[in-house]
Amino acid sequence: MDQLTIDRIATAHPKIREELKNYYIECNNKLPKGVRLRFAYVYRSVEEQNKLYNQRPKVTNAKGGQSIHNYSLAFDIAILLDKDNNGTFESIDWNISSPYFKLVVEYFKSKGYEWGGDWKFKDAPHFQKAFGLTWRDMQNKILNKDYFVENGIKYINL
């Protein structure tokens, strides 16, 4: 297992946290030796989102508050490779056509997660479970104080 991913899953919305951890472990166990799934992001603060939005070259169209990451209901993936089989994963496979990437995509889609690779503006590493809400709905919940705080993170009431 990847402890960094487990730590990031701990920031996921409590409504999906336990299932996401279980799905991560199950999916990761489907990958062959020398290949590991990592969650690059789960929760992302509004400040972090704005920093990414302003980054060049462009990496996101979402300003702070416009990303499902800001509500802890999304995650981005990376496929790590241990090319020399020494137990360290020194390379990232960003090829969305790779069998490993495809396996992860199909797995999480089968569990009800929306995949960013299916969108008009492709975001292949991105998955989310928005419970029928848009980012505007989620933002309004924050503005209307329809949330609770855990470990310093505001989680909207679902």
Describe this structure in words.
- The chain is of the alpha+beta class and 158 residues long.
- The chain has 5 helices and 7 strands.
- The chain has helices at 3-9, 14-30, 46-54, 99-110, 135-143, and strands at residues 35-41, 74-81, 91-93, 114-115, 126-128, 147-150, 153-156.
- Strands 1, 2, 3, 4 and 5 form a 5-stranded antiparallel β-sheet that branches. Strands 6-7 form a two-stranded antiparallel sheet.
- A hairpin with a 2-residue loop joins β6 and β7 (153-156).
- α2 packs antiparallel against α4 (99-110).
- The longest helix has 17 residues, at 14-30.
- The radius of gyration is 16 Å and the shape is globular.
- The mean pLDDT is 95.
In short:
With 158 residues, the chain is α+β, with helices and mostly antiparallel strands. The protein is built from 5 helices and 7 strands, in the order ααβαββαββαββ.
Task: Walk me through the topology.
Elements: H1 3-9, H2 14-30, E1 35-41, H3 46-54, E2 74-81, E3 91-93, H4 99-110, E4 114-115, E5 126-128, H5 135-143, E6 147-150, E7 153-156
Antiparallel strand pairs: 1-2, 2-3, 2-5, 4-5, 6-7
Helix pairs in contact: 2-4
SSE arrangement, N to C: HHEHEEHEEHEE
Shape: globular
**Number of strand segments:** 7
Mean model confidence by pLDDT: 95
Low-confidence stretches: none
Pairing-aware structural class of the strands and helices? Answer: alpha+beta
Largest sheet features: 5 strands, antiparallel
Calculate the terminal CA-CA distance, rounded to whole Å.
Answer: 29 Å
From the alpha carbons, calculate the radius of gyration and give it in angstroms: 16 Å
- Give the count of helical stretches: 5
